[in-house]
Design brief:
Two copies of one chain form a homodimer. Chain A has helices at residues 10-22, 38-50, 78-87, 98-101, 120-123, 127-142, 154-166, 199-217, 223-235; strands spanning 5-7, 27-32, 53-58, 92-94, 108-112, 146-150, 172-176, 240-248, 263-271, 274-282. With 284 residues, chain A is of the alpha/beta class. Chain A has two domains: 5-176, HUPs (Rossmann fold), CATH 3.40.50.620; 189-282, Pantoate-beta-alanine ligase, C-terminal domain (Pantoate--beta-alanine Ligase, Chain: A,domain 2). In chain A, the strands form two sheets. A six-stranded parallel β-sheet of chain A has the order 1-4-3-2-6-7, sandwiched between helices. In chain A, helix 7 links the parallel strand 6 and strand 7 (172-176). In chain A, helix 6 packs across helix 7 (154-166) and helix 8 runs antiparallel to helix 9 (223-235). Chains A and B meet through helix 1, strand 5, helix 6 and helix 7 of A and helix 1, strand 5, helix 6 and helix 7 of B.
């Protein structure tokens, strides 16, 4: 276990990446908001395999939170994160402070016109603008060859793929499967908000996805029917409040009514005060 | 005079720049819409001095033109441009086609919240979004160390400086002074639209700026008064139609009422159907 470089300054990170590139090394990058869990670690392990140098960033990005969201309450534990990063063989951790990335005259944003109109973008109108902007900034600071994102945030991954293509970033975007708890709950830093009593309700998302998968596999083509069954099964659990249940095209995220090929089923459900998301690609 | 590389494909340009960087070479970049004049050539000469490799791009960017502007009529002469580029020692000319930079599902834009609210942005609301977007794309394709822009498009330069800082592009932005015809008319590809009869009216912009400079030098502090004198002197010429005459802070472009330090005086005037811009930093 070698030691890890912790770099808080953008200019130092850029100089470091320039040096790696000048030495002919490849760079894999995993951007996170910290409070690492098995999902993040699986991204780090994949990055470790795919490049000479592995960079992790930890930054709770304010521009992707709405005014009434959990920015101030977002869980943090830098010491634990660094310990986990060391164990996974991370070479460098980029840990900027808010003021260095968003200064006083800050005014530039990257936004997409279509993909954010679906799913989470409907109830979080500025969220994907914040995501596209911070990822653009981090790409310019870390200068990676490869960047790895979880499929759990499926819409985020779609936005980043499209943005990378549209803005001609010379970076290979890798999507990585969702990691689940033994009981099936998708790993998320926000799971820490759940009480033990809320756990069975939180599990209803994955169970509903598995049921929808079965329905599609056995020939059900009517998306509306599957959505209704899914909503009913989730709402039969106490304290659940559905934000959306949708069946969409996995690339454009446009609504699908009749299932002819692989479709994305995506859910956002509040369990108590905690908003959970999950998704699955269903194949007939 | 060595031969010149003409590269139409983004991926090839990126690979070329990667190779230069791997070889420890620096890259200077001059992005243009072609139809090169002495103003562009002065940028190329500066770029030639400042880096090992000099890249020129020629692309008439559709996203920076409004629906009723001169996109289709914009003057082009690729053969002449390449000949001039060769003479100035350009190493590489990047000449993408529209379809390769803006594909079918294209949907990502870079926009600024404050700087475009002034000057040309008022009458060309989408213009600077188009500029910031294409410059982001070109920076990611050409991967330069230095990029050089003319001060003639002062607001464009301010937008690009701010965007470069905000999005953490590791690129040195150089502004270069306006080049003028012997009679004082600021060089512009659009000057080709002017008839000989319109020339004296076109010259009224520079004359008005020189007069304002004298007023400020001799102690006039009242911006409104200088603006009124400037407008009157321009409108005394036939066929002139003022879009704006403003005195602003050179960095934020906010309106200045009382002149205490250097200010930007910026003009946009239609002479017949041709929209001309010019500017000068006035120092008390």
């Amino acid at each position: 276990m070698t030691d890890i470089d912790i770099i808080p300054e953008s200019e130092e990170m850029q100089a470091y990446s320039d040096q790696l590139r000048a030495d002919g090394k490849t760079i894999a990058f995993v951007p996170t908001m910290g409070y690492l869990h098995e999902g993040h670690l699986s991204l780090l392990r994949e990055g470790r395999k795919r490049a000479d140098s592995l960079v992790l960033s930890i930054f709770v990005n304010p521009t992707q939170f709405g005014p009434n969201e959990d920015l101030d309450a977002y869980p943090q534990d830098m010491d634990r994160d660094l310990e986990l990063a060391r164990k996974e063989g991370v070479d460098t951790v980029f840990t900027p402070i808010k003021e260095s990335l968003y200064g006083r005259e800050y005014q530039t944003y990257v936004s997409l016109e279509k993909l954010p109109m679906h799913l989470c973008g409907k109830s979080r109108p500025e969220h994907f603008r914040g995501v596209a902007t911070i990822v653009t900034k981090l790409f310019n600071i870390v200068k990676p060859h490869i960047a790895i994102f979880g499929e759990k945030d499926f819409q985020q991954l779609a936005v980043i793929r499209q943005m990378t293509k549209d803005l001609n970033f010379d970076i290979n975007i890798v999507g990585w499967p969702t990691i689940r708890e033994p009981d099936g709950l998708a790993m998320s830093s926000r799971n820490t908000y759940l009480t033990p009593e809320q756990r069975p309700s939180a599990l209803s998302l994955y169970k509903a996805l598995q049921n929808a998968e079965k329905l599609v596999k056995t020939g059900e083509k009517n998306a509306e029917k599957i959505i209704t069954i899914t909503k009913e099964s989730i709402l039969s659990n106490p304290g659940t409040n559905i934000d959306y249940v949708e069946i969409n095209d996995p690339e454009t995220l446009d609504t699908v009514t009749s299932i002819k090929g692989p479709v994305l089923m995506a859910l956002a459900v509040k369990v108590g005060k905690t908003r959970l998301i999950d998704n699955m690609v269903l194949k007939p």
